[in-house]
Structures are given as structure tokens and as C-alpha cells.
Amino acid sequence: MSAVLRDTTSSIVERIRDLGAVAVVRSQYPDRLAPAVEALLAGGVEAVEITLTVPGALDQIRRVRDSFGERVLLGVGSVTDGETARASVEAGARYVVSPVFHPAIIEAAHAAGAAAMPGCFTPTEAQAAWEAGADVVKVFPAGVLGMSFFKAVLAPLPHLRLMPTGGVTLDNAGDWIRTGAVAVGVGSALWDDRAVAAGDYGALTANARRLTASIAAARG
User: Fold this and answer.
1) 49 is catalytic
2) Which residues have C-beta within 8 Å of that of residue 101, sequence separation ≥ 6?
3) What is the mean pLDDT of residues 203-212?
4) Active-site residue, selected from the candidate residues 14, 38, 49, 107
């Protein structure tokens, strides 16, 4: 069943792989999300994960969906239960990201037609998530584990699609890609909420350009 479910989400996963980066949005300024997302697009970052820590997150997902349509590959983050996963997909999320591995979240995401990206910290968790149908395994917090851990996991488990999140920077993103990541999740290094508060959207565009350049260089 997992393979069948992955077939339905393969186009989402392939686009994430092609883009190479997912912007992880944690913001206290939801009314400024639209110009900030536009700034990310200007810098080449098209995959945007709006976390549930954003005030009114589901409403913001709807607004971004309505404003940007297919220009943005929209996801939801910080999901910890199946009901919220379903509601997020109904709001417009194409993929569901979680800080933890819970089979119910994967099941709910797939039932709604979205990709599932659970968070895992150990090889056992990562393999269990894969067997439960995960489309991409979010390695979190990746900065604590380091690239040597990441590389060591992929040696015996090369079938896993891993995306490091937590500790990924604009400059080391390319190194994670070289280590075998299908994409990277980048939070505060990319989404500078102080810049958003100040209306300095150019800073976000500059960050996005640095990030995409690092990934492009890694891929040759």
C-alpha cells in the first residue's frame, strides 16, 4: 500500500527534489506573509512550509494558496496529529511536515492526497517512517546530528529520501545536498522575521538567492 500511496504523491516529491529547498516559515507577522513569500519567489525559493506556530496558520495557508496558486509549492509544518493534517490539506497544503513520526499523520496526509514528511532522529525511526509510507523523511534536528551521521545512515539505507531540517544554513545547504539530501529545510537562516517586521523584503530575496546558489553549485 505504501508504494501505491507514494505513486500518488510522486509529483510533489519530484518538485521538492528539483527545487532543493523548502522555506520553513515561523513568523509573528501573518499579515506580511504575502509580500515575504513574493520575496522568496524572487530569490528562487518556491517551496514554502507554513508552520502551525504562525498565528492563524490555516487561514494563512488559504491566503497564500489563493494569492500564489501553482507559483508556490505550499506545505504545512509542525503537524502533530492526523486531524490537523487533514484540515491543513483542505486549506491548501500539498505536503505535511511533522517534527515527529506518527503513522496517523502519514495516513491522513495520503488520504487527503498530500505528501507526508515526518520528522525522525534515528535510523530505526527513519526506516519505520519509510515503511509506514513516508514520502520524505525529515531528519530533525539535523544540526545536532551532523553530516557524518546523515552520510552514515544513507550507507546501509540508500532508499531513504532524507531532508535535513534544523541547523541548515544558507552556506552549508549545498554540503547537505552533496551528502545525499533530496532537499533541505531552512528556517530562520532564510526567513528573517526581524526583516519581515521591518518590511525589508529585499533581505529575504538576498537570502533566497544565496541558498539557491549554494544548492545549484552542489548539483553542478
Assistant:
1) yes
2) 118, 119, 120, 125, 128, 129, 132, 134
3) 99
4) 49
- Distance from C-alpha of 86 to C-alpha of 114, rounded to nearest angstrom: 9
- Distances 100 to 36, 46, 51, 136 between C-alpha atoms, Å: 27, 24, 14, 13
What domains, with CATH codes, occur in the chain?
2-219 (3.20.20.70)
38-56-95 Cα angle (round to 5): 65
Residue whose C-alpha cell reads 546530528 in the numeric block: 145
Pick the catalytic residue: 90, 131, 138, 151?
138
What is the rounded distance in angstroms from the CA atom of residue 166 to the CA atom of residue 169? Answer: 9
pLDDT value at 1 more than 60: no
Q: Are the C-beta atoms of residues 185 and 170 closer than 8 Å to each other?
A: no
- Share in percent of the chain as helix, strand, coil (round to 5): 55, 15, 30
80, 40, 83, 36: which is closest to 60 by C-alpha?
Answer: 36
pLDDT in tens, 132-180: 999 999 999 999 999 999 999 999 999 999 999 999 999 999 999 999 9
Q: Is the dihedral of CA 65, 68, 74, 79 positive or negative?
A: negative
Name the grid cell of 24. Answer: 520553513
Q: Is 151 a residue of the active site?
A: no
What is the per-residue pLDDT for 9?
86
